[in-house]
Amino acid sequence: MFGPLAGLSAEALVSTAAYSASMNAANTCRTLMAASLLHEQREEDYLHRRSELHSGRANSINDLLDTTADALAGGDPYTEYGPNGFEQATAELGAALNVTAAEARDLIRTGDAMRYRLPLTGTALACGRIDLGRFLIALKRTDFVDDATMPIVDAHLAEAILAREPMSTTRFTALVDQIVHKHAPDAVRRRNDHATRDRGVTIRPDRFQPGQSRLAGHLPHTDAAALNAQLTAIANSVHPRDGRTMNHPRFDTASF
Predict the structure, then answer these.
(1) What is the mean pLDDT of the chain?
(2) What is the pLDDT, as a whole number, of residue 56?
(3) What are the C-alpha distances in Å from 13 to residues 3, 19, 130, 131, 219?
(4) Distance between CA 122 and CA 130 in Å, rounded?
(5) Could you tell me which of 179, 183, 116, 99 has the C-alpha nearest to residue 149?
(6) Which of 177, 100, 186 is nearest to 149 (CA)?
(7) Partners of 95 in the beta sheet?
């Protein structure tokens, strides 16, 4: 298997690696497409199965009252129909690809987004101009773009990708943000509002380091920059003979 590569020149090895990377991107695109289509087919099967077992109409007032009482009691009226389409597709995909349920769900959701929100950018993935990591950056950074504006953002993003040489993740992220700022300014406002509402701090045990815990926080980037500058200034103001490292006073200040 590895014999043919051993005799190649450095230039040929670089070309081989680049070609393989582009093929990986194309195969990833096909996997996402298959996951999304599987979800749709299983959802149709589920709805068909429900319609065969029950039309959704109550045969009498008593049936309607019983259904309402079950719903108020917290009962799920659809449990008798088995797993829904998304759940079934998740199980099948996870088993076929030997991935966790969470990973299978991510594949389905990413495939759905590629087909319905970023189809042109998805074409850039299929052509190998970007990889899955950059596509996920585009997906995440356009989260708050509404459906009416999304085709415009998608078109400009795909055009920019195809017109440029491959970019680092930092430059690619900046490109996506620039396009969103220009063509969907309301999305920027919604994202900032969400960042403010979603602020918070969590502390949980570190499962990889016994005796330690992990602290994580979510806050608007402007507040984060101000906090970071304040902690750094305090850390720089300690006595030169203080035995603590730079990170120690930063944490000690934040813990109060």
Answers:
(1) 86
(2) 60
(3) 13, 10, 20, 20, 45
(4) 9
(5) 183
(6) 186
(7) none
Cα–Cα distance for residue pair 207/112, rounded to 1 Å: 33
Phi, psi (rounded to 5 degrees) for 244: -80, 150
C-beta separation of 167 from 135 below 8 A: no
DSSP 9-73: -HHHHHHHHHHHHHHHHHHHHHHHHHHHHHHHHHHHHHHHHHHHH--S--SSHHHHHHHHHHHHT
In this structure, are residues 129 and 161 in contact, taking their beta carbons and an 8 Å threshold?
Answer: yes
| Core vs surface per residue 25-35: b (16+ CB within 10 A) or e | beebbebbeeb
9 Cβ contact list (under 8 Å, min separation 6): none
Name the residue type at position 152.
Answer: I
Tell whether pTM > 0.90. Answer: no
**Stretch (H or E) spanning 210:** none
Handedness of CA 37, 107, 133, 142 (dihedral sign): positive
Task: Report the candidate in 103, 109, 114 with the shortest Cα–Cα distance to residue 39.
Answer: 109
**Are the beta carbons of 181 and 156 closer than 8 angstroms?**
no
Amino acid at 223: D
- What is the mean pLDDT of the segment spanning 171-179? 96
Closest alpha carbon to 200 in 219, 221, 222: 219
Phi, psi of 144 (to 5 degrees): -100, 10
- In the block, tokens 């701090």 appear at 201
Residues 6+ apart with CB under 8 A from 158: 120, 121, 123, 124
Cβ–Cβ < 8 Å for 138, 157? yes
Average pLDDT over residues 69-89: 76
Q: What is the DSSP code (8-state) at residue 131?
A: -
